[in-house]
Amino acid sequence: MEKDRRKFKVSRLLTLYLFKKHHNKALASISEPPTQIGHGTSTEKKTGNETDASHADSLNRTQWKEDDIIKEINITHVVKEGSEKADARQFELLKVLGQGSFGKVFLVRKVTPPDNNELYAMKVLRKATLKVRDRVRTKMERDILADVNHPFVVKLHYAFQTEGKLYLILDFLRGGDLFTRLSKEVMFTEEDVKFYLAELALGLDHLHGLGIIYRDLKPENILLDEEGHIKLTDFGLCKEAVDHEKKAYSFCGTVEYMAPEVVNRQGHIHSADWWSFGVLMFEMLTGSLPFQGKDRKETMNLILKARLGMPQFLSSEAQSLLRALFKRNPTNRLGSGADGAEEIKRHAFFSTIDWNKLFRREIHPPFKPAVARPDDTFYFDSEFTSRTPKDSPGVPPSAGAHQLFRGFSFVAPAMLEEEGSLEPAKPAPHPVVQQLHGKNLLFSDGYVLKEDIGMGSFSVCKRCVHKATNTEYAAKVIDKTMTDPSEEIEILLRYGQHPNIITLKDVYDNGKQVYLVTELMRGGELLDRILKQKFFSEREASSVLHTITKTVEYLHAQGVVHRDLKPSNILYVDELGNPESIRICDFGFAKQLRADNGLLMTPCYTANFVAPEVLKRQGYDEGCDVWSLGVLLYTTLAGFTPFANGPEDTPDEILSRIGSGHFTLTGGNWDGVSDAAKDLVSKMLHVDPHQRLTAMQVLKHPWIVQRDKLPNSQLQHQDAKLVKGAMAATYSALKSSQPTPELKPIESSFLAQRRVKKLPSTSL
Fold first, then answer.
1. Mind telling me which PROSITE patterns this protein's record contains (predicted)?
2. Which residues sit in the known binding site?
3. Has residue 629 got a pLDDT over 50?
4. Run of H or E residues at 119
């Protein structure tokens, strides 16, 4: 294997040398230099179309010469240890992830050892549709990916070809592309931007160290893995050079992200990537592009001439970094010096980043994609994922093209892309269902419904059995005419992997009802179990409250409030009754923190983005969650509820007691309960939600921290039926007093609408 790698390196160096030599010769042979836009002088003015045509002709001549040279080089195969050379038969097509002008990308599953059952993205290109220039780029992408091994760069696992197709097998990145997906859901803060830019800087630095200019840095080429870390992908426009002094002259990339020296064809080196880095930073922080005209020509002129207004709501460090990146003279641009990316890393904007921890992926991303299953494609366009994946026959290319792809094969994981006959997509009732099932939208196709196990305001919960595995689950059937389940689905997808939050297994939608398939709670309700226990002590109550509050604190830290934490929504997953088996369920009334434009806020939100009344409401809702936990704690300790004597109490009576904040902490069980418990209960049930303890403060209370010192004596309870009736009456009274807020769709926000629009590009 080492011998093969050495051959590969030698071949690549020879390729670079011959490419450099022939590239310079090709440039010298072009009689007329490219016309500059906005800067410099020219003896003859041309129209935009003439300029583009002249430049395109020059490019074509250059690329033909590049093709001639590459045909002479045979790159030795690189074979991953323990694997054999791959072919298309080793991969099962699951879904279409995307489609481009040259082919498609599929989600595939490996069906042969040693990595059988692994999921990959398979990029399939039809040779017959590739121009010579595109063939060069495809081979270049394969070569770069085979050479690069970095935590923030997508990994190539296999590459192979048939007579008519090229295959790249890459990491399957479940989060989709970062910016177009995230901008529809989450409002960026400077802390978020800092994290993503820092990972991006490390990835670019690694590529630059290998002599690679990325040249196509744009939102669509930055993907998220399942943990929320970024991966750079799509290397079809990258250039390699022996050192940073060698310039590339081709006009490539997406115009809005281009550096001035790329626009005016003065030649560019790695510093062009740092300009694009600044464009991404500006877009993430403001939601708009720094230079965007009504057409490509105007955009290019803005890049070359326009004075950029710096938004004053940005921090001084952020403004300073943007100014240092937006230097039209590349030699003055931050990152262009001898230290390269170290200049970026030393900037004050990144002062809080631990670069070693970041490289080791030890810093938690600000956003984790909502992925419930390994093959989820929630963050990919449903226009593609709803289609039936088909691998149509590839038409063989011209005879001369075969030489270009000598040595293309490579062994490791990948993506599949291809252009073939696809069935037209049909609209689905709900986007999540579209992603999970494509056209198979019937719940009855996968499950059999059984008896009722619970009732809600707008739903019924039933036991169900999965037909293929005979596994039992719970199915929450929601009436769509009464409520919009989108928020609940999003929250469960995003946070259902927490050990004490119910896990969402599947989603179906028949247009009238939505079916949420979850794990089956065999242990029943928490309060039922406590009231039926012969022995339940203060120490056990502390352990139970710790588990529940820790979960609630996690949700609050993510900007999520449950708003319906009644005991019937806290259940055990099994009959053992251990605190670890507790699950918080039913997120039908839950909310995620949103800004005024409807976008979700990440945990580290700032006053720049959140109106005071939004934060006030969020604090109120968090206080309601803590109050509900206080009611539960009071009931487990006292043996009866704090504000209702029984199910016959009227809502007005109950609300009056709640409003007065009066409850008793003497007599009965309270005479044997610790003072620490009474102190915690009184602070959790404080009538003013803003003076109430937060979930984090509850976790730090001595009654939680020092539970080993609590009494282990048995607590007495009222009749279980009476207690449950009083509890139900309490929450019924509360619900009747609160109007249901109107839900506004995320898609209505300005930023989401802007990102949905396809930006004009000059991708060649």
1. AGC_KINASE_CTER, PROTEIN_KINASE_ATP, PROTEIN_KINASE_DOM, PROTEIN_KINASE_ST
2. 97-105, 123, 453-461, 476
3. yes
4. strand 119-126
Binding positions for ATP: 97-105, 123, 453-461, 476
103 has which bridge partners? 125
Q: Which residues contact 122 (CB under 8 A, 6 or more apart)?
A: 91, 93, 105, 106, 107, 108, 167, 168, 169, 170, 414, 415, 416, 417
Hey, what CATH topology would domain 524-747 get? Answer: Transferase(Phosphotransferase); domain 1 (1.10.510)
**φ/ψ (deg, to 5) at 273:** -65, -30
**Cis before 114? omega within 30:** yes
Q: Enter the tokens of residue 154.
A: 């997508």
What's the CA gap between 84 and 104, in Å, rounded? 24
What pLDDT is recorded for position 39?
34
For residue range 108-124, list pLDDT tens digits in order: 888 888 888 888 888 88
506 is catalytic: no
pTM of the model as a whole: 0.52
Examine the residue annotation and report whether 216 is marked as an active-site residue of this protein. Answer: yes
The domain 177-236+251-370: what is its CATH number?
Answer: 1.10.510.10
- What is the distance between the alpha carbons of residues 151 and 198, in angstroms, rounded to a whole number? 13
The architecture CATH gives domain 71-174+391-425: 2-Layer Sandwich (3.30)
pLDDT at 401 over 70: no
Distance CA 474, CA 517 (A): 6
Cα 215 from chain centroid (whole Å):
24
For the domain 440-518, what is the CATH superfamily, name and number?
Phosphorylase Kinase; domain 1 (3.30.200.20)
8 Å CB contact between 529 and 536: no
> What are the tens digits of pLDDT across the range 353-387?
999 999 999 998 877 776 555 555 455 545 444 45
Which residues have CB under 8 Å from 316's CB, separation 6+? none
Of the listed 143, 171, 192, 216, which one is catalytic?
216
Sign for the CA dihedral angle at 255, 257, 260, 266 comes to: negative
| pLDDT at residue number 446 | 87
User: What distance lies between CA 443 and its chain's CA centroid?
Assistant: 27
Q: Distances in Å between the alpha carbon of 324 and those of 219, 349, 623, 635?
A: 21, 11, 44, 60
* 242: Cα separation from own chain's centroid: 36
Residues of the chain with CATH 3.30.200.20: 71-174+391-425, 440-518
Query: What local confidence, expressed as pLDDT, does residue 753 receive?
Result: 53
Amino acid at 663: F
The closest of 578, 551, 574 to 562, measured between CA atoms, is 551
CA angle centred on 234, ends 228 and 236, rounded to 5°:
165
**CA geometry: angle at 253 spanning 248 and 256, to 5°?**
120
Rounded to 5 degrees, φ, ψ at 750 are: -60, -45
Nearest CA-CA partner of 203 in 136, 276, 254: 276
Query: In sequence order, which ranges of 353-460 are alpha helices (DSSP H)?
Result: 355-359, 382-385, 431-437, 443-446
φ and ψ of 159, to 5 deg: -145, 135
Angle at Cα 220 formed by Cα 214 and Cα 223, nearest 5°?
85
